[in-house]
Design a protein that fits this description.
This protein is of the alpha+beta class and 286 residues long. The protein folds into 2 domains: 145 residues, Rossmann fold (3-Layer(aba) Sandwich); 137 residues, no CATH class. The strands form 3 sheets. Strands 7-8-9-10-15-14-13-12 form an 8-stranded antiparallel sheet. A 5-stranded mixed sheet has the order 2-1-3-4-5, with helices on one face. Strands 6-11 form a two-stranded parallel ribbon. Helix 3 packs parallel to helix 4. It is elongated and about 65 Å long. The protein starts with a helix and ends with a strand.
Length: 286
């Protein structure tokens, strides 16, 4: 019996790791997602998937777990049957018969019901806990492979590029008169203009010009997505060049901290989730 158990364990690991894989590339919606809802269509042995998913996603720290679909940027759906694309339209539980053989994890767009990423493990009911952990580890690896890892030098280059230097204290109307520079109005705001320039350094190709009370441009800002990262240690290693501060976002328990250059020209902000920090935005002032 002992040899049989060992053989079955080896066989489980030897089985294809992606028996129901549908996506090897993580979509931009997943990379940019900040909040997640866990949904488990999990009778019998599959029920452990939800508990393990909560633990693994909290340990990862990339997503804030929320209780309602309306608050989520992405839904982690665990099931034993392949997803049919009917998350928004299904009336009640999945009626299909289920054998607890597969553990399937599908990332669903909570607005459209689209399948954003999916993979599975055919490890049987007794391996659901480990299968769930392995699926999240696979997703984490793919997300981190596709995350753009910026250096501090990448960020500092934006402050000296001729394109943005040319906007310093320019009237907003004059900036808008230069469509060749990729400047346009932003909907819903009067104190920011959008810039989309292929000639700017990579980190700041897309930025927002900041318009002051006198209608002149006082700086620019790059809003980072979940797909952008900056190693905090690199900033700390040059701590003598920055002043550090922190606080909470308005109407939220989420915290942040900032590193501002000694000359007050560059402010780098990180959001904090658990023990994980994530690049949030960089502001450049003239």
């Amino acid at each position: 019996m002992k040899r049989l158990a060992q053989f079955l364990l080896i066989l489980a690991w030897a089985l294809p790791r992606s028996a129901a894989a549908q996506h090897s590339h993580v979509s931009a919606k997943v990379l940019q997602a900040k909040s997640a809802l866990i949904v488990c269509e999990c009778p019998r042995g599959l029920a452990v998937a939800e508990r393990r998913a909560v633990a693994e996603l909290q340990r990862w720290g990339r997503f804030q777990l929320v209780p309602r679909r309306e608050e989520a940027d992405v839904v982690f759906l665990f099931s034993g049957n392949q997803y049919l694309g009917d998350y928004l339209t299904r009336d009640g539980p999945d009626p299909r018969p289920l054998s607890v053989d597969f553990t399937i994890m599908t990332l669903v767009d909570p607005r459209t019901g689209a399948n954003l990423w999916s993979d599975s493990r055919r490890w049987g009911a007794w391996r659901v806990d480990h299968a769930t952990k392995d699926l999240i580890a696979e997703l984490k690896e793919q997300v981190e492979d596709q995350t753009k890892k910026w250096t501090l030098q990448d960020i500092l280059m934006c402050s000296v590029t001729p394109l943005y230097a040319g906007f310093a204290h320019l009237p907003a109307e004059d900036a808008l008169s230069k469509p060749d520079l990729g400047v346009s109005r932003m909907a819903g705001t009067l104190d920011r203009l959008a810039v989309n320039s292929p000639t700017a350094p990579d980190f700041c190709k897309q930025a927002q010009l900041l318009v002051g009370p006198d209608n002149r441009i006082v700086g620019f800002e790059v809003i980072a997505s979940q797909a952008d990262s900056l190693d905090l240690n690199e900033v700390i290693q040059q701590a003598d060049q920055f002043d550090f501060a922190g606080g909470k976002y308005p109407n939220s328990d989420q915290t942040y901290f900032t590193a501002q250059s000694k000359d007050k020209k560059i402010l780098i902000q990180f959001g904090v989730q658990g023990r994980k920090s994530a690049l949030s935005r960089v502001r450049y002032s003239y």
